[in-house]
C-alpha cells in the first residue's frame, strides 16, 4: 500500500506526522513538540507544505517511526498536507513518485515543485542521523550535519541551532554551493540573534524581524518560531499577521530597537504643588501657600449636610430626645421604656378605632371623642369661633392629619394618605365641648394644579392671620428635611399677625436620635429672635407614639389657659 494512503487513513497519526515533518525529526521531534508544549494542531497548520525527505537509511528505522509511513519500493518518503490531499494535488505527486525510485523520484518531485511558490521541498540524507541524535537529545545538544559534528548548545542560542538545521536540509540537497550555504547560515545566525535581541528588549509585541521574503527563509523562521517555544505566544497565524503588519510599516529591526514602545503617560499631581490650582485660588492666596480658612469662610464653603452634621445640640434637647425615645429605635427599646407596642398605631385609611384605645390617654381632654363638624374652602365658610382652636399647619404630607389621630388615639377620624395633597379644605374637629382641632391643607408640593394649590395657601394664610379664637398654630416640620422657604413665609406672616405658633418636628422615627436633636437645635437657633414662636420645640412620631404624650401636655395647657 502506498505510504501516503495508509498514513492518511490514520487520523491520529496524521497530526503526529505533520509535527514530525515540521520539525524534521522522527521520534525525537515528537518529544520536542511535547517538550515545547505546542499543540500538534498548531504545528500542523503552520506547515501546510509538502516535504519530501530522501531517507537513505530509512530501513534502519523500520517500525520505530510510528505514524511516518513508508514506501516499500521507493526510498522517498513524502509528507503531504491534508488540505492538499483533499485537493488531489498530493495524490498526483504520489502517483508520480510511485513510478520512480530513490533520488530520481525525489528530483522529479523537486522539479515539479520548484516552480510553486508555497511548496517547499527539502531532502535530508542526514535526517535519520539528526533524528537519532535528537531522539537522544533530552540532552541539550543538537548535531548539525552541516557542522559535521559541530555541537551547538540549545537554549540561549538555539535559534542558531534551528537555522543551522534548516541550512543542513537545504545543503544536503546539493542545490546550493558551499559559498551560498555559508551566506545563508550567516544570515540565519544574524536574523536569529537580531530576533532574540529584539524580543529581549522589546518583548513579544515587536517580533517583526524581517526576512528577505523568500519562501525558504520564511519557512526557516517559522521553524525557528516553533522551537522558540518560550517566546512564542498564540498561533503561528498571529505571528504571520504581525509579520505582515511589520511589512506594511516598513520598519526595520534596528528602527524598532531605536524606538521603544511608547508607554502610557501617567500624570501625577503633587498635592503640595499649588501650580495646579486655578488662577482664582492663586489670587486669593497671593501666590503663597494656602492659608488656613477662618471659620466664617469655612461655614460658607461647607455643604448644607456638613453644616448640619456640625450642629451640637444643647443638653436639654438631647435629654428630651432620650426621655421621649425619639428617633429611629428598635421595638425592644420602646417596650423597655413602657410603651405598649402591641397597641395598634395605624396611620393611613384604617377603620375607626374603639373607645377603649382613647381611655388609655393620660390627659383627660384628649380622651374626648373627636368629631368632624366643618370644612371650609373659602374664608366665608369658616364656622363661628365658639371654641378655642389649635390648628395644624405645614407642608403637604408632613403628617398633620396623622398627628390629629395620634393625639386623640382615634384612628380613622381624620383621613390620611401617603400622597401629598389629600387634605384640600380646612377641616374643623371638636374634641368634646372644650377644644377645636383644625386640620389645614398643606402647602408646597402636592398632586394638584398650581392654581388650586395657590388657593389653599391663600386660605391657610388668611386663616392663621385673621382667625379669631385661634390660640395656637402647630407648625409641623419634617425632621428629615427641616424648614423650607414656604415654612418661613408662613412664620413671617404669623409674626406679623402675632399668631402664636409652635414648631413640631414630625416623623422623628425616620432619622437617628442625634439627627432629631440636631434638627431641633437648628430650628431653635433660627427662631431665637421670633416673638410669636412658642418654646419649647416639640418632637413627635405619630407612628411610634414617641413625643405624643409631651405634646398633649403642652396643648392641654393651652386649653386650660383658654378656660381661665
Ligand atoms: N414614618 C412616619 N410616617 C408618618 C408619620 N406621620 C405621618 N406619616 C405618614 O405620612 C404620610 C402623610 O401623612 P398625612 O397625615 O396624610 O400628612 P398631611 O400633612 O395631612 O398631608 P396633606 O393632607 O397632604 O397635607 C402618611 O402616609 C402617613 O402614614 C410618622 O410620624 N412617621
Ligand atoms: Mg392631611
TrEMBL record:
Molecular function GO labels: GTP binding; metal ion binding
Keywords, in A-Z order: GTP-binding, Magnesium, Metal-binding, Nucleotide-binding
Tree of life domain: Eukaryota
Region (Disordered): 1-298
InterPro entries according to UniProt: G_ENGB_dom, GTP-bd, GTP-bd_ribosome_bio_YsxC, P-loop_NTPase, Small_GTP-bd
Residues annotated as domain EngB-type G: 386-561
Coiled coil: none
Membership in a protein family: Belongs to the TRAFAC class TrmE-Era-EngA-EngB-Septin-like GTPase superfamily. EngB GTPase family.
Polar residues composition bias: residue spans: 1-14, 199-212
Record's protein name: Putative GTPase
A Pfam match: MMR_HSR1
Gene3D superfamilies documented for this protein: P-loop containing nucleotide triphosphate hydrolases (3.40.50.300)
Needed co-factor(s): Mg(2+)
Biased composition (Basic and acidic residues): 154-165, 267-284
Amino acid at each position: 500500500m502506498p505510504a501516503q494512503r495508509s498514513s492518511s487513513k490514520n487520523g491520529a497519526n496524521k497530526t503526529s506526522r505533520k509535527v514530525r515533518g515540521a520539525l524534521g525529526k522522527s521520534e525525537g521531534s515528537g518529544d520536542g513538540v511535547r517538550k515545547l508544549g505546542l499543540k500538534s494542531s498548531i504545528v500542523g497548520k503552520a506547515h501546510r507544505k509538502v516535504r519530501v525527505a530522501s531517507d537513505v537509511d530509512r530501513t534502519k528505522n523500520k517500525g520505530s517511526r510510528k505514524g511516518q509511513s513508508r514506501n516499500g519500493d521507493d526510498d522517498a518518503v513524502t509528507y503531504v498536507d491534508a488540505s492538499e490531499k483533499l485537493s488531489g494535488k498530493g495524490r498526483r505527486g504520489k502517483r508520480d513518485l510511485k513510478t520512480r525510485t530513490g533520488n530520481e523520484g525525489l528530483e522529479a518531485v523537486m522539479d515539479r515543485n520548484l516552480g510553486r511558490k508555497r511548496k517547499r521541498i527539502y531532502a535530508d540524507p542526514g535526517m535519520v542521523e539528526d533524528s537519532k541524535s535528537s531522539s537522544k537529545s533530552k540532552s541539550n545538544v543538537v548535531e548539525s550535519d552541516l557542522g559535521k559534528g559541530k555541537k551547538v548548545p540549545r537554549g540561549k542560542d538555539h535559534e542558531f541551532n534551528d537555522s543551522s538545521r534548516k541550512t543542513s536540509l537545504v545543503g544536503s540537497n546539493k542545490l546550493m554551493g558551499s559559498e551560498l550555504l555559508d551566506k545563508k547560515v550567516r544570515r540565519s545566525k544574524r536574523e536569529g540573534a537580531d530576533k532574540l535581541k529584539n524580543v529581549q528588549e522589546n518583548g513579544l509585541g515587536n517580533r517583526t524581524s524581517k526576512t528577505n521574503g523568500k519562501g525558504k527563509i520564511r519557512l526557516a523562521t517559522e521553524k525557528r518560531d516553533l522551537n522558540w517555544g518560550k517566546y512564542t505566544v498564540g498561533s503561528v497565524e498571529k505571528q504571520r499577521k504581525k509579520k505582515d503588519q511589520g511589512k506594511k510599516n516598513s520598519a526595520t529591526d534596528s528602527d524598532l530597537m531605536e524606538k521603544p514602545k511608547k508607554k502610557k503617560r501617567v500624570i501625577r499631581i503633587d498635592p503640595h504643588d499649588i501650580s495646579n490650582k486655578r488662577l482664582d485660588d492663586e489670587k486669593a492666596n497671593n501666590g503663597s501657600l494656602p492659608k488656613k480658612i477662618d471659620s466664617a469662610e469655612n461655614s460658607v464653603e461647607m455643604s448644607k449636610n456638613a453644616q448640619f452634621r456640625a450642629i451640637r445640640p444643647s443638653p436639654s434637647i438631647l435629654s428630651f430626645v432620650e426621655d421621649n425615645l425619639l428617633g429611629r429605635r428598635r421595638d425592644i427599646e420602646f417596650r423597655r421604656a413602657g410603651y405598649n407596642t402591641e397597641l395598634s398605631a395605624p396611620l393611613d385609611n384604617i377603620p375607626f378605632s374603639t373607645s377603649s384605645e382613647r381611655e388609655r390617654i393620660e390627659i383627660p381632654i384628649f380622651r374626648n371623642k373627636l368629631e368632624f363638624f366643618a370644612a371650609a374652602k373659602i374664608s366665608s365658610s369658616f364656622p363661628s369661633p365658639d371654641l378655642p382652636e389649635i390648628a395644624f399647619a405645614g407642608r403637604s404630607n408632613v403628617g398633620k392629619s396623622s398627628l390629629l389621630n395620634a393625639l386623640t388615639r382615634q384612628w380613622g377620624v381624620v383621613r390620611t394618605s401617603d400622597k401629598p395633597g389629600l387634605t384640600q379644605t380646612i377641616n374643623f374637629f371638636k374634641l368634646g365641648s372644650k377644644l377645636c382641632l383644625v386640620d389645614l391643607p398643606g402647602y408646597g408640593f402636592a398632586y394638584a394644579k398650581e392654581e388650586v394649590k395657590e388657593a389653599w395657601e391663600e386660605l391657610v394664610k388668611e386663616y392663621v392671620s385673621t382667625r379669631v379664637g385661634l390660640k395656637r398654630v402647630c407648625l409641623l416640620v419634617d425632621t428629615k428635611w427641616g424648614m423650607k422657604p414656604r415654612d418661613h413665609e408662613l412664620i413671617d406672616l404669623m409674626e406679623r399677625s402675632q399668631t402664636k405658633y409652635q414648631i413640631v418636628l414630625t416623623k422623628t422615627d425616620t432619622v437617628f436620635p442625634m439627627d432629631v436633636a440636631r434638627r431641633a437645635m437648628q430650628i431653635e437657633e433660627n427662631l431665637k429672635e421670633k416673638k410669636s414662636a412658642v418654646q419649647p420645640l416639640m418632637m413627635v412620631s405619630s407612628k411610634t407614639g414617641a413625643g405624643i404624650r409631651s405634646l398633649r401636655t403642652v396643648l392641654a395647657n393651652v386649653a386650660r389657659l383658654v378656660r381661665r
